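Look over this record before class:
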Amino acid sequence: MDKKFRPVLSVRIFGEGKCFGPGVAELLRRVQKEKSLRAAAISISMAYSKAWKVIKNAEADLGFKLLVSTTGGKNGGGAVLSPEAERLLAAYDAYCDAVGSFAAEEFARRFDGILQK
C-alpha cells in the first residue's frame, strides 16, 4: 500500500496574543461571499455570537476594523470587509501559499527516501 505523505501547515499571526489565523481568515472569506456576518457564521456552523466575538477580538488585537456593517432596514443589513481587512486577507493568503510551496519543496528534499519512495 503506497502512502502519500505531505506537510500540513497552519499560519497564525501573533501580537500580544493570537490575533489572526485560519479561522478568522475563513470567516472573512465567508463574509466576502455572503455579505453578512450572520450568514457567514451559519455557513460554517458557527454561532453568530461567537463569530461576532472572533471579529471583535481580532479587531482589538490588530488595531483596525475588519468589517463595515450596515444595520437592517428596508433592504436588510449586511457586512463587507474593510479596506484594511481586504489587504490583510490578501497578504495572509499569499503568505500561506508561499510558505506552503516552500514547505512542500523542503519536505520532498528532506524526506526523499524516508517517506517518499
In short: The radius of gyration is 18 Å.
